[in-house]
């Protein structure tokens, strides 16, 4: 098989949640356990930082990985979904897994994994673990796919377990209240493994405390460990942090966007706890943190989070796609300076569209579109729902056509925003990043 054929096999023959939704979800770890046994349990060959949560997992994971790299540790990074290339999901020191490894892995284990009807995510996770082991990494940063308790990634051996925040998403699988979802996320807690929680939320405090206590695990909230001098990242990515609320260090970060405040605190708090392990004690040296954040893009090639694509007009994309994520994005948009606002928006069909749309501003022109995946919501259906909420715009046959129309309409002092779905941003990334 050549690489293109392998990718077509992965996307076409295996159920993939990002494309088909519920049909690909398995509330069961038996397949993952079986696959890991087939490939000789490589997940046991290295320690991990395991990261769950509703929003911010990708940002937090990439920040942690970049700082670990700056500290000299060979770092594996497993995230999902990808934007442009499948191999983005599996990196070592920022370098994507090789095409040859992907081909060899699929060819070697294809018949056995087909026998147990492995999903796309199960096979991809196993591939990542095998690759990390083959590369003799020092540590892996592993982002949970969905939930935590029954997620494929929950076989890793973490030194720190991290939960960024909890909000309503994937409720058909994880539960319809914050406490039910928190219980699923808390399923990643391991006995005697310290835990960092990124956001203090009244509905989840008892759930996290009870599960942590059962596991005899130390639990801390990020803002108990990390302090920001002005409590925010500036529009230029500048901020000052401290671990003792006294000596503050100035940092210029690649990341901008108000919602990154919480993710950054979560990442730094996780690293501070990790540094208590003698092997990793040097990671929180100021130079490693400053350089890790400054060099985030070059270290991990992380993009798609409040990312500026051009300046005339200011054009920004962001992958936020649920109520919590869209709320933060629209609040950030409201603080920007522009003449007119143009929004290129697409969504997937299994979200609560009406609840998400209520956060969008009425004083804007909308360009509704459908990402090229089966789960994508028809642009005309999205338009109809939007019109009911007095959001005015037109439907377009593709993401690209919607973006072209926005660019043709916008003046230099306007603003264009592209988002609503990771897959909308992915199509923009394919052509413009």
List the helices and strands and how they pair.
Layout: H1 3-13, H2 17-20, H3 30-38, E1 48-52, H4 57-70, E2 75-78, E3 90-92, E4 95-96, H5 99-115, H6 120-134, E5 139-143, E6 158-163, H7 171-174, H8 178-185, E7 195-197, H9 202-214, E8 219-221, E9 227-228, E10 238-242, E11 249-252, H10 260-274, H11 286-294, H12 296-300, E12 307-311, E13 314-317, H13 323-334, E14 341-345, H14 353-357, E15 365-368, H15 379-388, E16 393-395, H16 399-409, E17 415-419, H17 422-432
Parallel strand pairs: 1-5, 1-6, 2-5, 6-7, 7-8, 13-17, 14-15, 14-17, 15-16
Antiparallel strand pairs: 2-3, 3-4, 9-10, 10-11, 12-13
Helix pairs in contact: 3-6, 4-10, 4-11, 8-9
- Give the N-terminus to C-terminus distance in angstroms: 29 Å
Number of helices: 17
Provide the CATH topology of the largest domain.
UDP-N-acetylmuramoyl-L-alanine:D-glutamate ligase
Q: Please mark out the parts with pLDDT under 50 across 5 or more consecutive residues, or reply none.
A: 17-24
Helix-strand category: alpha/beta
- Please give the share of residues in helix: 25-40%
Rg (CA only): 21 Å
- Main sheet summary: 8 strands, mixed
Sequence of strands across the biggest β-sheet: 4-3-2-5-1-6-7-8
SS elements, strand count: 17
CATH class of the largest domain: Alpha Beta
The total tally of domains equals 2
> What portion of the residues fall into strands of 2 or more residues?
15-25%
Q: Which architecture of the largest domain would the CATH scheme give at its second level?
A: 3-Layer(aba) Sandwich
């Amino acid at each position: 098989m050549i690489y293109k054929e392998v990718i077509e096999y992965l996307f076409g023959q295996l159920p993939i949640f990002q494309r088909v939704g519920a049909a690909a979800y398995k509330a069961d770890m038996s397949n993952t356990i079986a696959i890991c046994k087939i490939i000789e349990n490589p997940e046991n060959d290295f320690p991990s930082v395991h990261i769950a949560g509703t929003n911010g997992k990708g940002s937090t994971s990439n920040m942690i990985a970049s700082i670990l790299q700056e500290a000299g540790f060979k770092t594996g990074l497993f995230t999902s979904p990808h934007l442009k290339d499948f191999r983005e999901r599996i990196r070592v020191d920022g370098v994507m897994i090789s095409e040859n490894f992907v081909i060899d892995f699929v060819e070697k284990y294809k018949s056995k994994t087909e026998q147990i009807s492995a999903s796309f995510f199960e096979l991809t996770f196993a591939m990542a673990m095998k690759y990390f082991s083959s590369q003799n990494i020092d540590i892996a940063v592993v982002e949970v796919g969905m939930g935590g308790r029954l997620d494929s990634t929950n076989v890793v051996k973490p030194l720190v377990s991290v939960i960024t925040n909890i909000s309503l998403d994937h409720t058909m699988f994880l539960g319809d209240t914050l406490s039910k979802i928190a219980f699923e996320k808390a399923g990643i807690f391991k006995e005697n493994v310290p835990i960092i929680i990124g956001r203090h939320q009244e509905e989840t405090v008892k759930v996290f405390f009870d599960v942590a206590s059962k596991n005899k695990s130390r639990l801390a909230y990020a803002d108990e460990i990390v302090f920001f001098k002005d409590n925010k990242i500036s529009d230029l990515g500048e901020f000052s942090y401290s671990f003792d609320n006294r000596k503050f260090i100035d940092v210029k970060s690649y990341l901008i966007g108000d919602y990154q405040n919480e993710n950054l605190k979560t990442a730094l708090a996780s690293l501070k706890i990790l540094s208590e392990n003698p092997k990793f004690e040097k990671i929180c040296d100021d130079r490693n943190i400053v350089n890790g954040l400054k060099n985030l893009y070059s270290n991990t090639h992380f993009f798609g989070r409040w990312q500026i694509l051009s300046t005339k007009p200011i054009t920004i994309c962001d992958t936020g796609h649920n109520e919590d994520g869209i709320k933060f994005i629209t609040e950030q948009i409201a603080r920007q300076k522009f003449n007119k606002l143009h929004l290129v928006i697409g969504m997937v069909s299994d979200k609560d569209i009406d609840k998400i749309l209520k956060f969008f501003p009425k004083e804007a022109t909308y360009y509704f579109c459908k990402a090229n995946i089966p789960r994508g919501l028809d642009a005309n259906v999205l338009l109809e729902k939007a019109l009911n909420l007095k959001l005015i715009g037109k439907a377009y046959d593709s993401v690209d056509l919607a973006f072209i129309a926005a660019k043709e309409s916008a003046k230099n002092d306007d603003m264009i925003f592209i988002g609503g779905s990771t897959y909308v941003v992915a199509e923009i990334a394919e052509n413009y990043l």
